[in-house]
Design brief:
Elements lengths: L1 E4 L10 H10 L3 H19 L4 H13 L4 H16 L9 H12 L3 E9 H9 L6 E5 L1 E4 L2 E4 L6 H9 L6 E6 L5 H5 L1 E6 L4 H9 L6 E2 L3
Helix pairs in contact: 1-3, 2-3, 4-6
Length: about 220
């Protein structure tokens, strides 16, 4: 069986990319001033699905300008080690890790598919020491910084899974967001990890009669 997990908000209790970028930006007065200057434009872009990739790329470029590929990987690794030692604001969700461990013990294949940059997600997931496959957003160098190349969100997550050899259907899907509706619709047992009646109503309105809401 194949169990597919989102990462930010599902396995983690926040947005790893946003926290990582902020940690990088606030270390440099120049980066901080540049980020504050573009925030009024970039944040509304990030909020809209149609412009999310472009808005995120602007902030990503500011935070990574001047980094080589090796330095980019090192920055992600330092961030992951800060998470491991409790030195940043992110934490893994205990219930999520318990469910992930249950799938591992059952012999299920586990894939984490996330909109976070692959280099960042890999560094974070490596701290768990669990057998998971990763599919994330690829980055490319532009004018001395890094921007999103193929943004792994919404329908693109399903395409990434298909290209990785997992087909068009899976047994389980776990996410905190209906932006992952294509991922949920392709699952036999979709779960949105927000409990309560409001989450259940959203699932019903989306036509996911076989879905359930879980309080993680």
């Amino acid at each position: 069986m194949l169990a597919v997990f989102d990462m930010d908000g599902t396995l983690l209790d926040g947005d790893s990319t946003a926290v990582w970028l902020w940690e990088r930006v606030k270390q440099s007065p120049v980066r901080l001033l540049a980020a504050l200057a573009v925030l009024p434009v970039a944040l509304p872009m990030v909020a809209l699905p149609s412009t999310r990739r472009a808005g995120a790329s602007v902030l990503l470029w500011i935070a990574t300008a001047g980094l080589s590929e090796r330095q980019l990987a090192a920055s992600c690794e330092r961030f992951a080690q800060a998470l491991r030692s409790g030195r940043n604001s992110l934490t893994w969700k205990a219930q999520a890790l318990s469910v992930l461990e249950d799938h591992a013990q059952a012999g299920d294949r586990i894939v984490v598919v996330t909109a976070a940059p692959t280099c960042l997600a890999k560094a974070l997931l490596d701290t768990l020491d669990r057998p998971v496959e990763l599919l994330g957003t690829s980055l490319k160098p532009v004018l001395g910084g890094w921007v999103a190349d193929i943004h792994c969100r919404h329908q693109r997550k399903c395409q990434a899974l298909a290209q990785a050899g997992h087909g068009a259907r899976w047994t389980y899907a776990y996410t905190d967001s209906l932006d992952d509706l294509p991922l949920l619709r392709a699952a036999e047992r979709p779960v949105i990890v927000k409990g309560g009646k409001a989450a259940e109503r959203k699932l019903l309105r989306a036509g996911l009669q076989n879905a359930r809401a879980a309080a993680w």
